[in-house]
Amino acid sequence: MQIINADFAPMDITKLKIFVAVYRAKSFAVVAKQRNVAASSISRTIAGLEEELGLRLFQRTTRTLNPTQAAERYYLRMEPLLEEFDLAQQEALGETLQPSGLLRVSASSSFGQLVLAPLLGKFQQAYPKIQLELDLSDSRVDLIAQQFDLVLRHGALNDSSLVARKLLDVDYLLVASSAYLKRSAKIQQPFDVTDHNLVGFTYRELNKQWLFSQGKTSQKIAITPSLSLSSAAAIKECVNHDMGLALLADWTVREDLKSGKLVQVLSDWQVTGANSDSAIWLLYPSRTFMPNKVAVFSQFLLDNLQSV
């Protein structure tokens, strides 16, 4: 397919899509792998586009690929046009009524296992033509470079280039097992936690300082966990085995609190990490057009997780 302008030569849609992909990934090799072609092929395509436009789009070195200012301007104009083109094709094919295709989603391992997995059967029944690929990782993935359609991210957001929508507000609870509390010093005020074994996350926002709030009173308590893990589920298991106190999201420990396996500590205080933003966010790569498969999955999560 070509875009034809009276003042310019016909422009190949595929070539433009490759430019957008390279701009996002900042790598010929990544895009080549995604398209199952040689990196040299992607490089030649970009070089051909640069020749047609009469300008340089990327500064190349042996290790880096950096977009020029011209590339940034071109990307901001071209991306919405290509997305509108894709939308027109989808509507023509009836995809608006029947979302389909591969949907790549990333979420944390614990949230995926404990919250998302039980809902997937219901989603598949509603949208049988969508092939859902759920990547569970406790590392922060690169949505653009790794070609995810949607990422669920916890806490503060640092990448302003992505589109964010709040999925869920999360309360963090300080918890321990009854057996641990019976054999340990009493906890009557926030500073008392420093006398205890703490099981924490490896993330800086949650393993350096806890913020305790009660009405207009707040206290920042520096902490040093004796054990740090990247997985909320693993932290909960450690706490269930009487290894100490932990600050965990309400969705992680709700059933354990109901059953009595865990006990909430300092329940009259609100507790967060160093950054008080404890929400879970949906992140998208585009500010303009959202594929139907992404839209229906996002709405499905919003509809089904409000009571989590």
From TrEMBL:
SUPFAM superfamilies: Periplasmic binding protein-like II (SSF53850), Winged helix' DNA-binding domain (SSF46785). Residues 11-68 form the HTH lysR-type domain. InterPro entries: LysR-type_TF_proteobact-type, LysR_HTH_N, LysR_subst-bd, WH-like_DNA-bd_sf, WH_DNA-bd_sf. Gene3D superfamilies: 3.40.190.290, Winged helix-like DNA-binding domain superfamily/Winged helix DNA-binding domain. GO terms for molecular function: DNA binding; DNA-binding transcription factor activity. Belongs to the LysR transcriptional regulatory family. This is Transcriptional regulator. It comes from Agarivorans albus MKT 106.
